[in-house]
Amino acid sequence: MRHVIDPIRLSSYDLVILHGKKMRTGVAATLLITFMMASHLALSGEESRVQPPWLGSPAGQSDELLPPWTPVSVEGHAVHVWGRVYRFSDLPFPSQITSASQEILAGPVALGGTSAGQPLLWKGRELTVLESSPVRARLRIQAATDSLECNGTVLIEYDGMVRCDFELKPAHPNVALEKLDLEIPFRPERAKYLHFWPGRWGSVFNSRAIPPDGYQVSFKPFFWIGDDERGLAWFAESDQNFWHVDPNRVIEVRPEKNSVVLVIHLVGKPRKLNIPLEYTFGFQATPVKPMQPDAWDYRICHMGNYGIEENPPGILDRLAEYGVKTICFHEHWTDIQNYPRTTHGEKLRKLVKACHDRGIQLLLYHGYEMSTLAPEWDQYHEECLVYPRAGGYKRQPEQTAYIVCYRSHWQDFICDGIAKLIDEYDIDGVYLDGTSEPWGCRNQLHGCGYVKPDGSVGTTYPIFAVRQTMRRIYTIVKKHNPNGQVNVHQSTCMVIPTLAFATSYWDGEHLQSIKRPESPGEVLPLDAFRAEFMGRNWGVPAELLWYPSGPFQRREAVGLALLHDVPVRPNRMEDVAVSARMWRAFDELGRHEAEWIPYWDSARFVRCDQDAVKVSLHNRPGGGFILVAFNLAQEKCRARLTIDFSALGQSETVTAREVVSEAPVSIAGNILELELNGLDYAMIRVQPR
């Protein structure tokens, strides 16, 4: 029997399904589907729906400069934001960037290529400051070659996010464009690591040291290069107007004699241009903000539950005694997944008060999903979910949750709901699960996706919409409580234009499903940790995630993280007890008055006779230090450490103890000897006698 499609009977989601699976026959099919979708919306009607009060909500919409950032200022062709300076010249991209007191670029960001067999030689025509305020600067920059005109607008916001909207306009009909590349030349000493997104679950392949012979990869919407203290990200929401010769070589990291060049191959096939090519690219130098308070200060545990203030033997009291300052309450604070309201209001109000009475902040879970139990499901899921539909996670009470796109109306819903939740219950912030990730989406009902020349729909990664969502949530939290938190769980996804509005991040779930290999150290190599998991090169404090089911034993994960000055979040009382001893040791030392000396820079202070043993220190001259030694090998070893007390500014008359076991440690002169099991650590507090 032949099936007849009635567009009035089809849901808009059905139409998208048909478009994606049945009717990919070119532009005509796309136009037909677009018409059918428009007809459906007109007939079923935006105007016929009851408009909910959250739609168009102003919650979190603010043009105010938020702490800890400083005002944007413009001096000539230089734009200053916290910790960074962006300079501009001929093209609508940075010509030089200073971050953490060091220049990043080896030369200006350039548009290279050829037209009619000749190299593109750009001449700047005009640079005009269109706007300058404490929260943003806006520039207009124009340039030209013999065959192309470049007209661009550059927006620089107070967190250092740079958005470049530009068009390349043919100077005459049928301009022959053979090649076009965006080229970002880094100083070699600044280009140690790379990180890009999307990554791959069960792997850290997207976070690594830059190979000596370079690196090539398919289009990625986010790509960062940097060192242990700073870096620069490039990003784009899609590969629209990219024409590739090799889809596996769209992005290339190319070491050269005096630079390391990040190349984005835009056009690799000859084109005849008669209409402008339009692009939107972003740049953001890191770190994006100061690292105080940091993850050690927040003292987070993941042990939220109703009734912990009452349950014997006094769970909440024990957590307070251990020094916990923040409790994350996971999904079960409400019955509907990722929903900003609850039927357990009285229990929540009682828990919040109990936490506050003990000086503890309470963060409630929100995420990246829309549940079939949500009252808004029937009316809004078609236009708010990502397409192709993703997720489908089963939750309790019985429901299914799908990934939502925050380019949709659901941004208003979640921001409005969080604002009302905070006002009603006086919670101290939010724990966001995946909310900062700009999930790939082709749902044209809310503006994602773009039509390719062959009529298929390309993927959008809605970075700017997710950034707006994160900024609104950050604003809501900080307006209510200047010390409130936006704690983000993400894995593989250091997309800094969205993550900049997190007070801290929790990373590592993508490694927990890995079966323990023969060499566990291969799961998270040091270069991957330094690229993605440290936080300080991003300007967002970091915690390492660990599950009992993962490839590491907890003590192994803690040792690796401690070596990088990163805590592992506790979610069991016995783990809180261990963390408490570390917190006390740092308090005794005065950690914020101490200098962290990482293992790659500590040999001038501490020498170890075992290559596999790495040593990092927190040193406070005259006040002692904390030493962390971690054995990277799987075999037990005896390590001999020679300490230069004079170089550390310390007395040689000291006492020492192991922080976790609290056992005394003997130091003979300037020699400290340790026995370390494979993948084991010692954390030693050394103080003047």
Can you describe what's shown?
By secondary structure, the protein is α+β, with helices and mostly antiparallel strands. 20% of the residues lie in helices and 32% in strands. The chain has a nine-stranded antiparallel β-sheet with strand order 8-9-10-11-21-17-16-13-14, covered by helices on one side. Strands 6, 7, 12, 15, 18, 19 and 20 form a seven-stranded antiparallel β-sheet that branches. The protein is globular and about 80 Å long. The N and C termini lie far apart (92 Å). Residues 1-45 have low confidence and may be disordered.
Name the features.
689 residues, alpha+beta, 9-stranded antiparallel sheet, 7-stranded antiparallel sheet, 13 helices, 42 strands, 20% helix, disordered N terminus
Summarize the structure.
The chain is α+β, with helices and mostly antiparallel strands and 689 residues long.
Mean of all residue-level pLDDT scores: 93
Q: Work out the helicity level.
A: 10-25%
Characterize the quaternary organization of these chains: single chain
Radius of gyration: 27 Å
Q: Please tally the β strands and state the result.
A: 42
Q: Given the structure, what is the number of helices?
A: 13
Main sheet makeup: 9 strands, antiparallel
Structural class: alpha+beta
* Unreliable stretches: 1-45
